[in-house]
Specification:
- The complex is a heterodimer.
- Helices cover 37% and strands 22% of the residues of chain A.
- Chain A is of the alpha+beta class.
- Chain A has five domains: 5-141, HPT domain (Four Helix Bundle (Hemerythrin (Met), subunit A), Up-down Bundle); 146-278, 2-Layer Sandwich (Alpha-Beta Plaits), CATH 3.30.70; 289-346; 349-528, Heat Shock Protein 90; 533-666, CheA-289, Domain 4 (OB fold (Dihydrolipoamide Acetyltransferase, E2P), Beta Barrel).
- In chain A, a hairpin with a 2-residue loop joins strand 17 (571-576) and strand 18 (579-585).
- In chain A, helix 3 packs parallel to helix 5 (115-126).
- The radius of gyration of chain A is 36 Å and the shape is elongated.
- Chain A starts with 8 loop residues before the first helix and ends with a helix.
- Chain B is α/β, with parallel strands linked by helices.
- Chain B has one domain (4-119): Response regulator (Rossmann fold), CATH 3.40.50.
- Helices cover 41% and strands 21% of the residues of chain B.
- Chain B has helices at 12-24, 35-41, 61-69, 88-97, 109-119; strands at 4-8, 28-32, 49-53, 79-84, 101-105.
- Chain B has a five-stranded parallel β-sheet, sandwiched between helices.
- Chain B is globular, with a radius of gyration of 13 Å.
- Classes of the chains: A alpha+beta, B alpha/beta.
- At the A-B interface, helix 1, helix 2, helix 3, helix 7 and strand 5 of A face helix 1, strand 2, strand 4, helix 4 and strand 5 of B.
Chain lengths: 669, 121
């Protein structure tokens, strides 16, 4: 049977990642609780699992490395070696290298350079610094078995009484023997059979003497009995003259490794011949994301079809209308339930992102000479898989900021009457159909005066501008803004908070800040549960309908003629409570004939993006609705200013406006 | 009637590999991620073979083998354990718990079937 092991690689990579995460998490905990034996067990188990599977799937680099790791962990588990901070550090590094090795196995590329060095360090740690560990990791290379000519053996096999109770069938052993060569004679030895009254039917009293003619060695014959040799009497003697090296070897149990030596013993596998109807029971299955997306897409279509039906119900004759309405209401409910369930398939707990942060914080805090613990709550909160992937970067940035800028050194903190150890909090919870993720610290809080000075220096605000706290806070999200006195290698890498905000907004989310000087800051990220469905505001423009993401909409109003002005260098603006806001004429950007071009006859929808407001001129508002997003890019191509399309209840296609893209377009015009 | 096998391993990839191989060999497969799950999955049933990992969360392989062997339906059932070469002593411990034999990791599908053929007709 030829089975391609590649088909299991995805599963292996997935679980290796899980084991690595467990390893890292437990190592971090071990640092604080070196006495916790269960932590060591978990770490060992993770390494052990990776080793077993990697060897089986042919990833020898991973297998060799985890072997060293596992051997050390085994001794630590037995309390022969204690988890000193230096050792935990070494193990953490090993987890990193293991992750790199898995990545190499997955995507190719050169081996990480640290591997050999680390293996040596692991082996040294295991041997208590006495070196010479190489002997145990070296592969035992058996000499090739001596080639021999066929000869006759007398095999005596007296199974233990309880052989049947170990699930072993002695007849199978005789069959295996027959496959090694030719059985000349089998004699049953019934001398041990008791009186019938004393006979226990579950026990085995019979032994056998087999004369076997074969060209195999006695080791190979002994290998047949590998599972029973400890409980049975087995003797193998060469009876014919043909010579054989080592026939009198008393054959230790180690000689019969099934995985290596025994590989050639059985030439046929009788069970393997005919595949039959099969039936597998599992409690969970792995499904490709594409399949789930197809389902979501179809359910989306169903929702649309459903709303089409709802629209024409008025035309149904009055006599069947009530029945029809009842049926439709049921169908409606089912469709929505179905939609919800299907969406939930894509949801994964935030724990998968959260659990990387304790390590990030630990390493960072260490390099900055700070003491910081991480408090995580709500890691079971679920979010769309795609969003989980995309929220990781912004979260990392916020956390790095909290460690770098938010929390001070132990001395700083003690001076301001705080405990030397700072806390970074990571909390997730549901709120009004959204998922909220908070990144908080108990550090210095935002320095309002410094933000103001910087903003003035950068020309973001005038020196006399009177800004409220929220507006001041929002300034740190402005492009190019950074309050750190000097760019550190920790958080000042050229990606500013503006990128964080842009990434969050790309997920149709928003971010806000709460900060009290001296008490710390909280960054609150609000995300929709999923990206496939959007809460939108429908507007009309010419004969077309456009959808604005509701999250970005602040208000709408009909401007007076005096409020619409053109300012030199800034283009057309609309005055909102005395402040100029750029006015975007959507009909110009999307070339909509028949749209209202006179602002005083249409409506301006005020949107916010990156703390900047934008007024968009439309004909009229049509109302709020939930829409199923359909990619334009995958069906046509990327269109600047539009994020997606949707199909409305009446079958009409409406475009969903991309606010950041529109802002860029507006600047270009 | 086709033969059945209970495959117990907390590693999804290993479990998939063993299950797939056994299915190709014509077995009906029951899968479980640890000993406890395995025992509840075969409640009131019997199988023709058990293949189990040893190091697993919730309930390890040794404990499971002992508990299975104590059930009348599993009195004579062949039980193979998956070990590694670093677990020599586990073989003896496993035998004492009631295991029939072992398969040393790493192994390939052919090697697995060879060992299976040693204990299943």
């Amino acid at each position: 049977m030829q089975i391609d092991l590649k088909r299991f690689h995805t599963a292996f990579f997935d679980e290796a990642a899980e084991h690595l995460a467990v390893m890292e998490e437990s190592l971090l905990a071990l640092e604080r609780m070196p006495e916790d034996g269960e932590l060591l067990n978990r770490i060992f188990r993770a390494a052990h699992s990776v080793k077993g599977a990697s060897g089986t799937f042919g990833f020898t680099d991973i297998a060799t490395f985890t072997h060293s790791l596992e051997s050390l962990l085994d001794r630590m588990r037995d309390r022969e070696i204690m988890p000193t901070p230096a050792l935990v550090e070494l193990l953490l590094k090993s987890a990193d290298v293991l992750g790199a090795l898995v990545a190499v196995a997955k995507d190719g590329g050169p081996l990480p350079p640290a591997v050999e060095q680390l293996v040596a360090a692991l082996d040294e740690a295991r041997c208590g610094g006495h070196g010479n560990a190489a002997t145990t990791t070296a592969k035992n290379s058996d000499p090739p078995p001596p080639k021999i000519v066929a000869c006759e053996y007398t095999v005596k096999f007296v199974p233990g009484h309880d052989i049947l109770l170990y699930g072993m069938d002695p007849l199978l052993l005789l069959r295996d023997l027959s496959q090694l060569g030719k059985i000349a004679e089998v004699t049953a030895d019934t001398s041990r059979l008791p009186e019938l009254t004393a006979l226990v039917p579950e026990e085995c009293y019979v032994g056998w003497v087999i004369r076997l003619v074969t060209d195999r060695s006695s080791d190979e014959i002994r290998a047949v009995f590998v599972f029973v040799e400890d409980s049975s009497q087995i003797s193998i003697e060469t009876t014919s003259a043909a010579s054989e090296a080592g026939s009198a070897i008393p054959a230790g149990p180690q000689s019969g490794e099934m995985g290596s030596r025994g590989a050639g013993v059985l030439t046929t596998a009788s069970a393997a011949s005919q595949p039959k109807a099969r039936n597998v029971e599992t409690s969970s299955i792995r499904v490709s994301v594409e399949k789930v997306d197809e389902l979501i897409n179809l359910v989306g279509e169903l929702v649309i079809a459903q709303s089409m039906v709802n629209q024409v119900i008025g035309q149904i004759p009055a006599e069947i209308l009530p029945v029809m309405q009842g049926a439709l209401a049921t169908m409606d409910r089912c469709t929505r339930d179905l939609q919800e369930r299907v969406m939930s398939v894509r949801m994964v707990p935030l724990a998968s992102v959260f659990r990387r942060f304790p390590r990030v914080v630990r390493d960072l805090a260490g390099s900055l000479g700070k003491q910081i613990t991480v408090k995580i709550t709500g890691e079971d909160t679920e979010l769309d898989r795609q969003m989980i992937e995309q929220i990781a970067d912004p979260l990392t940035h916020l956390i790095r900021n909290a460690v770098d800028h938010g929390i001070g050194t132990p001395e700083d903190r003690q001076r301001s009457g705080k405990p030397p150890e700072g806390t970074v909090g990571l909390h997730a919870y549901h709120e009004g159909g959204n998922v909220v993720i908070e990144v908080s610290d108990d550090g210095r809080g935002l320095d309002h005066e410094r933000i103001r000075r910087k903003a003035v220096a950068k020309g973001l605000i005038g020196p006399e501008d009177d800004l409220g706290e929220t507006q001041l806070h929002a300034l740190i999200f402005a492009p190019g803004f950074s309050t750190a006195e000097q760019v550190t290698d920790v958080s000042g890498r050229g990606v500013g908070m503006d990128v964080v905000k842009r990434n969050i907004e790309a997920l149709n989310g928003s971010v806000s800040i709460e900060s009290a000087p001296g008490h710390g800051s909280t960054f609150r990220i609000r995300l929709p549960l999923t990206m496939a469905i959007l809460d939108g505001l429908a507007v009309s423009l010419g004969g077309d309908i456009y959808i604005f993401p509701l999250l970005s909409v602040i208000e709408s109003f009909r401007p007076k003629a005096v409020e619409v002005k053109t300012i030199a260098g800034r283009g057309e603006v609309v005055m909102v409570r005395g402040k100029p806001v750029p006015l975007v004429r959507l009909h110009r950007i999307f070339h909509c004939p028949g749209a209202i071009t006179e602002p005083t006859r249409g409506l301006v929808v005020l949107m916010e993006h990156q703390g900047k407001k934008l007024g968009i001129l439309v004909d009229d508002l049509l109302g709020q609705l939930q829409v199923v997003m359909k990619s334009i890019e995958s069906n046509y191509r990327k269109v600047e200013g539009l994020s997606a399309a949707t199909i409305l209840g009446d079958g009409q296609v409406a475009f969903i406006v991309d606010v950041p893209g529109l802002t860029r377009l507006a600047r270009g015009h | 009637m086709s033969k059945s096998v209970l495959v117990v391993d907390d590693s999804t990839s290993m479990r998939q590999m063993v299950s797939f191989t056994m299915k190709e060999a014509g077995f009906d497969v029951i899968e479980a991620g640890h000993g406890q799950e395995a025992i509840s999955r075969v409640q009131g049933k019997s199988v023709n073979l058990v293949i189990t990992d040893l190091n697993m969360p919730v309930m390890d392989g040794m404990t499971m083998i002992r508990q299975l062997r104590a059930k009348p339906e599993f009195k004579f059932t062949p039980i193979l354990m998956l070990t590694t070469e670093s677990q020599q002593e586990k073989k003896l411990e496993g035998k004492a718990a009631g295991a029939t034999g072992w398969i040393v990791k790493p192994f390939n599908p052919e090697q697995l079937l060879q060992v299976v053929a040693k204990v299943v007709r």
